[in-house]
Amino acid sequence: MGSTLQEKIDRLSPSQKAEVEARANELILEELSLRALRKGLKRTQADVAEALGIGQDTVSRLESRCNIMVSTLDRYIKAIGGEVSIVAEFPGRPPVKLKFEEISKDLESEK
């Protein structure tokens, strides 16, 4: 009979367990929702609402959306201390990282 995941984990050395845990945390951080990201940074909805100049209820609604404007996302991420960038990927080419501020400037200059 095969072994369980827990049994396999129990057989790892402390350094191997630490390595597995570190990689798991990296993977988790790559897929966080806005709410989880905010909580991970130990910020409350009230903190974010104050930084954005909106109500806490609006922050709650933002965190529940599955579709959000890039400008709104940029403001939210800045309110919790981060910066938004967009990565464009093309076949056979390295990824291109686009900064939101540069995109905004390009859009403004086209008007």
- 3D shape: extended
- The percent range for strand residues is 5-15%
Helix proportion: 55-70%
Number of strands: 2
Structural class of the secondary structure composition? mainly alpha
Strand order of the largest sheet: 1-2
Cα gyration radius (Å): 20 Å
Q: Give the overall pLDDT as a whole number.
A: 85
Number of separate helices? 7
Our measurement of the CA-to-CA distance between the termini, rounded to an integer number of angstroms, reads 67 Å
Major β-sheet profile: 2 strands, antiparallel
Unreliable spans: none
What is the succession of H and E elements? HHHHHHEEH
Can you give a write-up of this model?
There is one protein chain. The chain has 111 residues and is mainly alpha-helical. Helix content is 60%, strand content 7%. The protein contains seven helices and two strands, in the order H-H-H-H-H-H-E-E-H. It has a two-stranded antiparallel ribbon. A hairpin with a 7-residue loop joins strand 1 (85-88) and strand 2. Helix 4 packs across helix 5 (56-64). The chain starts with a helix and ends with a helix. The mean pLDDT is 85.
